Amino acid sequence: MPITTVPKIWMDGEFVDWDEARIHVLTPTLHYGWGVFEGIRAYATPNGAAVFQHRAHMERLHRSAKILQMDVPYTVDELMAATRELIRIAGLDACYIRPLVYLGYGEMGLNPLPSAVRVAIAVWPWGTYLGDEGISQGVRAKTSTWVRIGSNMIPTGTKACGVYINSSLAKVEALQAGYDEAILLNEHGMVAEGSGENIFVVRDGTLLTPPLTAGVLRGVTRDSIIEFAGYLGIPFAESDLLRQDMYIAQEAFYTGTAAEVVPIRSVDDRKLGPPGPITKQLQDLFFAVVAGKEARFAHMLDYVHRA
Q1: Nearest-CA neighbor of 96 among 134, 64, 129?
Q2: pTM greater than the 0.85 cutoff
Q3: Which of 9, 57, 155, 184 could bond 148 through an S-S bridge, CB–CB 3.0 to 4.6 Å?
């Protein structure tokens, strides 16, 4: 899906023209994947654009950078302010937001420490990642032959740029086999996550998701869904899941900033049926919250035009 350009991109404290937002070809991040990023969404609400879980995302960006020994030269509040201003400049009611912490051109080689840390933020209109039909009817998932990287290989608790080669391989494999999305197992054969999403299943009326020790990223949307489940009185637990557990789940769905909340209607051609009642409850609440229609969860929204 091509990106629709907007007037400006924020780079190291300045708003630069979209076509002038350039980096040197010898930046170590391009060669070695040493960088971290976030995926964030702003939604249209009756009070204008609002960024969902803005602070949580920017805090995770800082945590990811710390793990990779990258000293981000901007505070969480400064990054949030820059994002709000960027959305105002773009004149968008809803958009996708991509902050990126990367290495500037400097010393080439596997040692990233001498290179200066740079930061950029871009926003642009971006629709539903897995399609409107995926949101309403669910998607077909395939268990990938690619194994989810282990946390002692690359820290899985970071949104590190290079980590996503693993995800992209699984995504491409699923698409070329005729499926919508992948499911990755970890090195122990347990369910980890999708190519860019966390996974939930419903079994005997209980909502389950793999624990962080399974090598999954602690998703911001994942945390939100867990909070929503508590509010709705849905029993919840973290649990290791075998591949076969996906086949016999009563319900299953993906969560993520890009994907939002997407039902899984089949896994490896085992049908799970249409979106189930628990999935629908959580999906409905999620979309009500991001649209600014649930006062109880107003703390999850950061309005671009503050009163």
Answers
A1: 129
A2: yes
A3: 184
